[in-house]
Please model this.
Amino acid sequence: MTDLLAARSLMAMSLAFHIVFAIAGMGMPVLMAAAEWRWLRHGDELARELAVRWSRGVAILFAIGAVSGTILSFELGLLWPEFMRHAGPVIGMPFSLEGFAFFVEAICIGIYLYGWERTSARAHWWAGIGVAVSGLLSGAFVVCANAWMNAPAGFDLVDGRFVNVRPLEAMFNPMAGQQVLHMTIAAILALSGAVAGIHAWRLMRDPENELHRLALRIALPVAAIAAVLQPLSGDYSAKVVARQQPVKFAAMEAHFETRAEAPLHLGGWPDVDAQVVRGAIEVPGMLSVLAFGDPSAVVVGLADVPRALWPPVAVVHIAFQIMVALGLWMALLYLLAARRLRRGRLERERPWLLALACSGPAGIVAVQAGWIVTEVGRQPWIIYDIMNVADAVTPQRGLWWAFLVAALLYAALSAVVILALRRHIAAVEGSSHA
Model:
């Protein structure tokens, strides 16, 4: 049990660290390409300068993400050998495609960083598009593999062995579409919101800095659009989870009793022993609507499932509530802020700039909470309804030492990236003023 906890803790820490850089790889090139497009269309030299500076940030984050991603790939094989022995042949395709997308991204980043004076402007912009597309595809392929763990497909199970493997069916499993859509929008929202927050904070200190003002005018509308799309994606995701993983859905909502017109719990703390949610606001029938679009639909409760198959209900429910609350807050804030930006008021309104700056980390926190829901909510399964986590773990001992070493490594990498980004962001202060 101790070794299982160590393996799970090590994997969780590695995923939590790496996801930040995965978000950057999926979202930052979109803003970078948008800035360069503004330069191409309008001849705005400040936009070109912004694209140059953002591309240097992309390079820093890409390098650290490559290290953390490599660590994760080793951990999959070393910590979960039984999982990889069975699942490897089934989900090898999305992992192989992710590797291909990663190398394309690396090539395009090289061209983009060193091709400003060596390629035509259009060709250079297309290299930036290559970075953005390959970054989004890289994330999508990995999410497809994770979705397969939630909805295994593309094989036949015969005497405990995976046979008659169908790779395309496995990659495009029933959960793949909703997870890829939700994660892609989440990454763009989290990254553009973080960038808007950084430049809003800098504008509070230096209101006349035109580079920060332009950065806010590019990042904030992207964040607003993504923030509007994300609740729609979340509703679609909830309906898919309700059909494919009813136990996870019940844990997300702390829903214990199988019933029609199931109520939605807003907030509250699940009392698992008493099978109630204390301190929550109940909205009658709304859970049935969210799950199946019908207030009279029956929603399966945890009480009808063996206790051994319950995920940690309190962890999943609280993480889900945090994700939803932050998503709704970002939608409200970014929409209203984008409206004021369009009217030319935002850049000099300190309360709004402060709200954007303080909300900068909100998208990253929401993504972390969402992955807690996805991974912890699948427990005790590593492959849903097929393989238990305890059956997949390595028999090796001493994993807490590996956890300690990894923690020190991630702390060192965090210090490096924070120092590099601080120096990089501070350099913007020397840019031109109005």
